[in-house]
Amino acid sequence: MATNAVPVGPDQKDEEGVQETKTFVPGVGNVTIYIKVEKTDDVDEKTTKDVETYTFSMPVEVEEEVEVTDAEGDPVLNEDGSKKLTTEKFWKTTHFEVDLSSTNRDKLIKALAPFAKNAREKVLTVSQAPARSYTAPALPDGVDTAAVRKWAQENNIKVDGKPINEKGRVPASFIEKYKEAHPSA
Q: Of 56, 58, 142, 159, which has the fewest CB atoms closer than 10 Å, so is most exposed?
């Protein structure tokens, strides 16, 4: 994204896009600075007030090295014993984001107009939307909470007379009992 932070003087603090920032500098004390946040057109690198971010998708030809396999699916080897590779080309849809002034936005629309005129609008379903992934943060001691839950359920472990929950956070008391029973964990 072509967003720039430009330092400006206090006399410009009331202008559009100017943000006040306060910080402490050792040996100097509290300092107030003013930063003007500007968006720059990614095509012509000009800064204008009408720059906005636009997203679009288009096919892009991609090359990828893949292993050559025989009829049984086993890798074919070179004379030196390494796996034989080949380059395959294919098309994939790539999603782009670009910051454009109204002038360059209009140029893009004009260039795409003959294609857009005959195209159908594509509404993305949830399964087609760009995937978001989540990885649970690892516990500092590296204990696998799924293993703790499974162990507690299989061994009917209870804390304060209650079994471990089927879902949700694994309480620290169960983790401690698991660590006592599995010193190497």
A: 142
Residue 21: which of 38, 39, 37 has the closest Cα?
37
Residue type, 158: K
**Domain span including residue 28:** 3-39
d(CA 75, CA 77): 6
Does the residue 126 lie in any domain?
A: no
CA distance 175 to 185: 10
In angstroms, the CA 36 to CA 24 distance is: 20
Who contacts 168 (Cβ-Cβ below 8 Å, separation ≥6)?
A: none
Q: pTM of the predicted model, to two decimals?
A: 0.48
Looking at the structure, tell me whether residues 20 and 60 fall in a common domain: no
For residues 83 and 76, the answer to whether their CB atoms sit within 8 Å is yes
Predicted confidence (pLDDT) per residue in 79-113, tens digit: 999 999 999 998 999 999 999 999 999 999 999 99
